[in-house]
Amino acid sequence: MTRHAGAAPADDAVVCTRLAYAFGGTKAVDGLDLSVRRGEVFGLLGPNGAGKTTAIRCITTLLPVPSGMVRVFGHDAARDRMAVRRLLGYVPQQLSADAALTGRENVTLFARVFDVPRRERAARVAQALAAVGLSDAADRLANTYSGGMVRRLELAQALVSAPRLLILDEPTIGLDPIARSGVWEHIDTVRAATGMTVLVTTHYMDEADQYCDRVGLMHRGRIRDLGTPAELCQGLGERRRAQGAPATDPPPTLEDVFRDVAGSGLDDSSGDFRDVRSTRRTAHRLG
Ligand SMILES: Nc1ncnc2c1ncn2[C@@H]1O[C@H](COP(=O)(O)OP(=O)(O)OP(=O)(O)O)[C@@H](O)[C@H]1O
Predict the structure, then answer these.
(1) Which residues line ligand 1 (CB under 6 A)?
(2) Which of 40, 87, 93, 236 is 20 to 30 A from 169 via CA?
(3) Which strands make up the sheet holding 165-169, listed edge to edge?
(4) By percentage, how much of the chain surpasses pLDDT 90?
(5) Would you say residue 45 has pLDDT above 70?
(6) What spacing in Å lies between the alpha carbon of 234 and ligand 1's midpoint?
(7) Which of 102, 182, 196, 255 shows the shortest CA–CA distance to 171?
(8) pTM for this structure?
């Protein structure tokens, strides 16, 4: 059931229409309809195996678009890959910082890869490091950084090209609560300063609730519900009351909404939020 696939104005930052991607017989993304508005922080939520990373890889052009359509600021991701790549910064789940380089060297490497003009490079690298609060640690080797600092360094790498769309795949998984809020505060500050659009995947309902303007609940390859966190919670409260739940029941949380949407489909084979928290794909980071 897709409640709000939503009309997708042509000038949205990201538009996916009936996007599908299969690995052999596994339908990782199965008819995804999604639109991310310019300037918003959009959270793609879902348990292990929901298809979030596969969808993100299609949007970033790292995977082809075998079926359906993906547009980024109007550019077709299947036909105009370079135009799409020029517009986005991507922080993948997997390690992208080099332990043997300093923070500044890591970001400089990305500035070169993304063709930041040579004469602007040093200033842009310093600016990106400052934006994530790493100016003081910039000349230390990355292997002396904490997990939260590494994540912020990866954020600086993605920001140095001044992307219009920042895509983050599980930016805070495995971090302690203070480091998690540190990462989000930096994302928020940069977004406010630049107006960039942010598309983020997360398992953490509390983060989505606090930091995302809108969220799409993804399960088995598709968006099952979409709206602001408050709209989604309110909608479930109303459905429950219509089914006879007492008005004194506590208001539903985003996790309640997800469980309602996914229903019995949220089983062992598709993963659960507890499983998710104990499986840290990127646990083995810089050592
Ligand atoms: N390279 C691959 N080869 C085969 N199957 C894959 C591959 N990558 C993903 N899959 C499968 O596709 C489905 C969707 O996986 P995907 O990683 O997109 O989900 P996800 O929502 O990002 O999950 P997670 O939270 O665990 O990262 C899963 O069933 C997964 O096992």
Answers:
(1) 23, 26, 28, 46, 48-54
(2) 236
(3) 88-91, 165-169, 197-202, 41-45, 214-219, 222-227
(4) 57
(5) yes
(6) 31
(7) 182
(8) 0.86
Residue with tokens 């793609």: 44
Going from the Cα of 275 to the center of ligand 1, the distance in angstroms, rounded, reads 15
Number of C-beta neighbours around residue 232 at 10 A: 29
Residues 6+ away with beta carbon under 8 Å from 51: 21, 28, 29, 30, 32, 218, 220, 221, 222
- For ligand 1, atom 12: residue with the closest CA: 28
Supply the residue whose CA is at minimum distance from atom 11 of ligand 1. 28
Nearest to 1 by CA among 259, 257, 261, 256: 261
Q: In sequence order, what DSSP letters do the residues of 10-23 get, joined into one string?
A: TT-SEEEEEEEEEE
Which amino acid, one-letter code, is at 95?
Answer: L
Predicted pLDDT at 261: 81
Candidate of 29, 32, 34, 48 to mutate for ligand 1, largest count of ligand atoms within 8 Å of Cβ: 48
